[in-house]
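Request from the bench team (R.T.):
"We need a structural guess for the complex before ordering more pyridoxal-5'-phosphate. Sequence and SMILES attached. Just send the tokens back."

Command: build protein-pyridoxal-5'-phosphate structure.
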Amino acid sequence: MSWMHKKAHDALARIREAKDKQVYPYFRQFESGGLHATIDGKPIINFSSNDYLGLTTHPKVKEASIAAVKKYSCGLSSSRVQATTTAHVELEERLANWFGFEKCLTFTTGYQAMVGTIMSLADKDTTLILDNLAHACILDGTFMAAGTPRNAPEVRFFNHNSARSLRRVLKTRERENALVCIEGIYSLDGDEAKLSELLEATEEHENAAILLDDAHGTGTLGKGGRGIIEKYGFEGRVPVVVSTFSKTFGGIGGILLGDADIVDHVKHFARSFLFSASLPVPVVAAAATILDMLEDHGEALVSELHSKAAYMRKSLLEIGFDLGDSDTHIMPVMCREERKALFTHVAMFESGVMMVPITYPGVKKGEERLRLNVTRGHSREDMDQALELLKLFGESFFILSGEELAPMEE
Ligand SMILES: Cc1ncc(COP(=O)(O)O)c(C=O)c1O
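Reply to R.T.: structure attached below.
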């Protein structure tokens, strides 16, 4: 056995065990997509989707993509440097205007947008300061920047959402400039950034600024869905925002917002932008169509999401579920034991409702949970079916009582 084969085989031990026990929950194959999907020939209500406004499968969005395929095909066969279309530029101008920033640049994924932005902005004069629950794209951008020969930034972490901890790090940093990386909503816990407090702490230092990843706040926070900045009225105080088309905007792609010089700088220095192919135009067309809808009736769409989320939250709490730190439409159902999360997931899935389990190392041991995202596309019936099953299996697998599950027989 080669070292590579041995390494892979050993690393896959836990996955083999889950598959043998028939509780492996990932990479299920959708035969049709959306919030109401088909898997293994059975209808499934998907509660682990990030299609927060339920617009991904809207007929107008599909029509716009089909028209773009006819005009441009799926690929442009190169990076934006030599494969930029009028559709990309028009969408970027509209997004900048809608979000209230001077300029926008779209990337092929949100992950690339964050990695490229961090790599372009952080140098040896910078301290990157990360919330200790930072998303993988923030961590990876940071680690890549930290690995840059002769130009590596300092890297520090602060306790999740704690302005006190952030203040301590800002004060003791070793480099002149500071870039504080936070998220509008943390996707595993469903809790909002304490933006007001974090901004206040950051603004105490002349050379400190926030880089906000609002992937989960876009389309869900603020009256019109512009995100956490709109919700709290902090326009003009966060210089750089990164978001995505992979949730509310119905496709895939990254969004960078900032003033013209910052965005142009990233455009000319971000390797994840320069050395990866252009966002396909059918995806641009889908996002542009969803932007039309947000411009025309964003407030109604967001308010419908909030009333559904309020119903689900109230019902889950009444049953007795622990939703951790969640204060948004993302409501992790805390199971606090891996087997409880896996067994409940399988039982729910067999009954037609999908909530993907999140286990160690995605979360700490003892914080295992089911991913439950309420979207505008879920009906009252969908939610009631999910609630009924959660109650049934939450009792059967002792999630509600908190008792320990009996050990498994070998
Ligand atoms: C907080 C956060 N940032 C960035 C991303 C990356 O977005 P994308 O799917 O567009 O690569 C995600 C997606 O999982 C995310 O949750």
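Two things stood out. Residues 109-111, 114, 135, 137, 183, 187, 213, 215-216, 244, 246, 252, 254 surround pyridoxal-5'-phosphate (CB under 6 Å). Residues 78-279 form a domain with the Aspartate Aminotransferase; domain 2 fold (CATH 3.40.640.10).
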